[in-house]
Design goal:
Length: about 280
Amino acid sequence: MKTIILNNGVEMPILGFGVYQVTPEETEQVVSNALEVGYRSLDTAQAYYNEEGVGKAITKSGISRKDIFLTTKVWVSNAGYEKAKASIDESLKKLQTSYIDLLLIHQPFGDYYGTYRAMEDAYKEGKVRAIGVSNFYPDRYIDLVEHNNIVPAINQLETNIFNGQIESEKIMQEYGTQLESWAPFAEGKNNFFNNEILTAIGEKYHKSVAQVTLRYFIQRQVVLIPKTVNKERMIENLSVFDFELSNEDMKQIAALNKEETAFFSHRDPELVKFILNYDKNNRS
Ligand SMILES: NC(=O)c1ccc[n+]([C@@H]2O[C@H](COP(=O)([O-])OP(=O)(O)OC[C@H]3O[C@@H](n4cnc5c(N)ncnc54)[C@H](OP(=O)(O)O)[C@@H]3O)[C@@H](O)[C@H]2O)c1
């Protein structure tokens, strides 16, 4: 597996597996399948309510812990130094592990400066190998970086063919933060899986729209964590290291980028309210 070296020297697989919207009941089996077909990087979050299933699958797999790269994220309801600190220990327990490879602030809301200090301390204590953020657009990202000691290793942003994050990535590169994509397939929105340009490019290489897209971002050096509950698709999404897109293909795909979200803006007041109430509305 091709890897990326983060700003603190930690090595991360460029392609992993995300478990957002995988139900707590199905998570253990889905993650077991993902590990079986070869994924070694897993992306979960406190707010996915499925850390336990991820932990069980890792333990049962018999794969050495050091061969798995595990990411989780602190949710807004755990923001602030003390709550975040306790929530990190809770995540470690649920994940059945003594350390997390990458810990992210999930959303730029609440007392996330307190959260970040708790994460910096967890990093110094060896509970976490790298820390970073998610959904931090340039304004909040720069402010956080300038007011803390550890530069985030990763910023996980919605990144797909419609929303390429070219400008955000440029700013993050100035500071040394790696871009990681969430929703590389835009969850199928905008008729993504039938996109004509991606289909035509795929035909040349006998590859699917999903594979062409993953390959495009790999060649752009963006870290990816596509999600699927389907084992055949898990294999399909992993089979992207045996072909290379030409410069012309890369340009054609880049031209699809409108820097427009397929989901929502983090600056939309309704979205902010939704996120702030998410845990209250979803806690089982
Ligand atoms: N930090 C954040 O705020 C944030 C937000 C969203 C997501 N994420 C992370 O990013 C990961 C990926 O994003 P995502 O799950 O939102 O969306 P995604 O990976 O863009 O899309 C997942 C969807 O695509 C389908 N799919 C997957 N592979 C396919 C293939 N080869 N052919 C056809 N359909 C395919 C899946 O269906 P099936 O499952 O039915 O196959 C699912 O409906 C998440 O799981 C999560 O770990 C983070």
